[in-house]
Every structure is written in structure tokens, then in C-alpha cells.
Amino acid sequence: MSVLKKQIKTKKTKEEMKSFVNNKILTLPMLSSVVSKTEWQIDRLDFESTLGNGYFLFMENLVEIEIKLSFMGNIAKAQIEKAIDTEFLKLEENNN
Fold it and tell me: The pTM is what?
């Protein structure tokens, strides 16, 4: 099983980032069609999907992402990483 781990530094607060993930990342067509469950635990969003299971952990100016990829998720790993990077970059660009 492959694991995708990322730490994204940002100028945003954890509340801004939580809102962004809820409204922008989880609604991406590529993700919303495969995510079967999400659950917030204060500053951590756990999720289950056909691509893998993992979490987003929100801290001030930092988001930690870990996804234990399924077989299908491993095949799509590059596309998943690119989508996450692209969306977080948009957030930074929109508010600078």
C-alpha cells in the first residue's frame, strides 16, 4: 500500500484552511465522486474513498495531509497530488 504525505505551508489560519477544504477541495468533481465518508474531529478531517483513506490536519499556517492509497489511488497518485497542489495554490494566489 502506497502512502501520499504532504505538508503545505500557507499564510492562512486553520479556520480559513478548513473552510477552503470543505468548500473547494472536497467539492472537486474528481474527489466528490469517490469520497464515501468525511468526519471532522476538531482540526482534523478524516475521510474514506475508493482512492484511499486519510486525513487533513489543520494547524496555523500548515496543513498536513496523509492518504493511504488503495490500488486505484496508487494509479491516480500523480493526479491526486496535482489537484491538491493546484487548489491550495489558488487559495494563496486569491488572497495575496
Answer: 0.84
